[in-house]
Amino acid sequence: MPKNKTHSGAKKRFRVTGSGKLMREQAGKRHLLEVKSSRRKRRLSQDQAVSPADARQVKRLLGR
């Protein structure tokens, strides 16, 4: 049986931590950055955990 392929879009958007948690980038830091405060931009830079409702599907896309 052939190997399963990892979803190309998912591997660019999600990563798995050492403990197995799924992480994602936060939206809103691509453009219109002049109007956003430094505090807001700094907060948006931090990774966020994937919500439990989406975690199962994300794991499947990543082949885990």
Distance between the termini: 17 Å
Give the class-level CATH name.
Few Secondary Structures
CATH topology: Factor Xa Inhibitor
How many discrete domains?
1
Order of helices and strands: HEEHEH
Helicity, as a percent range: 25-40%
Mean pLDDT: 97
Helix run count = 3
Overview of the molecule:
With about 60 residues, this protein is α+β, with helices and mostly antiparallel strands. The chain has one domain (about 10-60): Factor Xa Inhibitor, CATH 4.10.410.60. Helices cover about 40% and strands about 10% of the residues. It has three helices and three strands; from the N terminus they run αββαβα. The protein has helices spanning about 10-15, 40-45, 50-60, and strands at about 15, 20-25, 50. It has a three-stranded antiparallel beta sheet with strand order 1-2-3. The protein is elongated and about 55 Å long. Keywords: Ribonucleoprotein, Ribosomal protein. It holds the Pfam family Ribosomal_L35p. InterPro entries: Ribosomal_bL35 (IPR001706), Ribosomal_bL35-like (IPR021137), Ribosomal_bL35_CS (IPR018265), Ribosomal_bL35_sf (IPR037229).
Task: Describe the structure concisely.
The chain is an alpha+beta fold.
Helix/strand layout:
Elements: H1 8-13, E1 14-16, E2 22-24, H2 38-45, E3 48-49, H3 52-61
Antiparallel strand pairs: 1-2, 2-3
Keywords:
alpha+beta, 64 residues, Factor Xa Inhibitor, three-stranded antiparallel sheet
